[in-house]
From TrEMBL:
It comes from the Bacteria. Keywords: Cell outer membrane, Membrane, Signal. Its main location: membrane. It comes from Pedobacter helvus. This is OmpA family protein. CDD domains: OmpA_C-like.
Length: 426
């Protein structure tokens, strides 16, 4: 009798579990469908919530443990239009032993889609498919290019690339399937960049990489075709991805060498990828099974900074590779490569003293920019001392605001060049 009771109990539990499992699967499917219907809303939750009217209190950030509201006007005042802050500069990231990315010496192109209307395909780009500019972020003011699921997309303002350049951009993705690919970043031979480009990797000279995140992981593939039309390199590696977050992609060409980083982690370092004396250009390709890919804040810079020669021999070195949070003096982790390089030069030349000078663009009030530039210079000195061991008494700091531009403040790339930190040998 006892065995019969146990048998009945087990059968009842299995039936209940099956019913519960079926209900759970239905709920899971409905949740997935809801996510797929609200792709853009998902992105809003990542970088902010909703669009707001001008001058409404729309953004709350934690600063010193307290919430601080900003108006849309303040948020859109530019990278340098900030009110003076009483807080001390601080080093906000740890020293990275692997992130060695150094941006090119001069910014030649930027793209934030500011000139494009929401819903349009950007005027300075071309495609064989579609795509649209969407506004996402705390105030609905940050613009992104939402790429079509399958297609070729490229910036027409980027022409033949030199032997030394860096390319950076923000990427966000959601609900990508394990099937097909994510985002391909391709450097084809210049004559091969066209709307008939075969994104399945044609026989023309090119260097191509694929970024295919799946949740917090994923893969990246790379392929190289040389002048004989032969694929001389093909490989795939696992990547770490910040799920539900904006990821920064950094690509660095030095003659034949190709390096790519996702956030502050190096993914590829291929010594012989680019063919010497061959002209390459740039395109993006998508072949998505599901989900979406977004691009924003693209920056292309030319040249290879020669920190040692310019600072020690010429007595002056300037960089726009030290990046700060908007309207703030907090240094971004993506600045680690150039800071490490500068610190190495100073530590190898212990008798050298420098003045660190901050510069801004013209966005915002002149006095606010002046004070911001001073605080940013002080923050750089503090970080070099705290994180990289440069003696504090070897560094003086100052700021010039927007009074000493090196480029046109009427263009986005000109403003980016003017937002810089200068090191002058004393």
């Amino acid at each position: 009798m006892k065995k019969i009771f146990v048998f009945i109990l087990l059968v009842s539990c299995n039936l209940a579990y099956a019913q519960f499992g079926g209900l759970a699967n239905k709920l899971k499917q409905k949740a997935k469908e809801a996510v797929e219907r609200q792709t853009d809303k998902t992105m809003d939750k990542i970088v902010g919530k909703g669009e707001n009217k001008v001058d409404e209190k729309v953004d709350e950030t934690l600063e010193g443990g307290k919430k601080k509201s900003k108006t849309k006007t303040e948020l859109e005042s530019g990278n340098d239009g900030a009110k003076e802050s009483a807080k001390l500069p601080k080093a906000i990231f740890s020293v990275s032993s692997t992130f060695d990315f150094i941006p090119g010496e001069k910014i030649v192109a930027t793209e934030d889609f500011a000139q494009d209307a929401k819903g349009d395909f950007p005027a300075k780009w071309n495609t064989n498919a579609s795509g649209e500019v969407v506004t996402l972020g705390p105030t609905g003011s940050q613009k992104w290019l939402k790429l079509e699921k399958t297609g070729i997309h490229y910036p027409e303002f980027v022409g033949d690339l030199p032997e030394n350049f860096t390319l950076e951009f923000d990427m966000y993705s959601n609900e990508l399937s394990e099937m097909k690919s994510g985002l391909k970043v391709v450097f084809p031979i210049s004559t091969g960049r066209n709307l008939k480009y075969d994104q399945h990797f044609s026989s023309e000279v090119q260097v191509g990489t694929d970024i295919h995140p799946i949740n917090e992981q994923g893969t990246s593939w790379i392929g190289v075709i040389d002048q004989s039309g032969e694929q001389i390199l093909s490989n795939e590696l696992a990547i770490n991805w910040k799920e539900n977050a904006v990821n920064r992609i950094s690509i660095w060409r030095q003659k034949s060498r190709f390096r790519m980083y996702i956030n502050e982690v190096k993914v590829w370092d291929i010594p012989r990828a680019f063919v010497p004396n061959v002209k390459y250009s740039l395109l993006f390709a998508t072949n998505l099974w599901s989900g979406n890919v977004y691009l924003s804040d693209l920056k292309l810079a030319y040249g290879l900074p020669d920190t040692r020669s310019k600072l020690i021999t010429e007595g002056k070195f300037s960089t726009n590779g030290i990046l700060f949070d908007v309207n703030a003096d907090e240094i971004k982790a993506s600045s680690a490569g150039i800071l490490k390089e500068i610190a190495a030069v100073l530590n190898e030349n212990p008798t050298v003293k420098v003045k660190i000078i901050g510069h801004t663009d013209t966005d915002g009030a002149a006095e606010a920019n002046l004070q911001l530039s001073k605080r940013r210079a002080a923050a750089v000195a503090a970080l070099l001392s705290k994180n990289y061991g440069v003696a504090a008494d070897r560094m003086q700091t100052d700021g010039k605001g927007a009074t000493q531009p090196v480029d046109n403040n009427q263009t986005a790339q000109g403003k980016a060049n003017n937002r810089r930190v200068e090191f002058v040998k004393l």
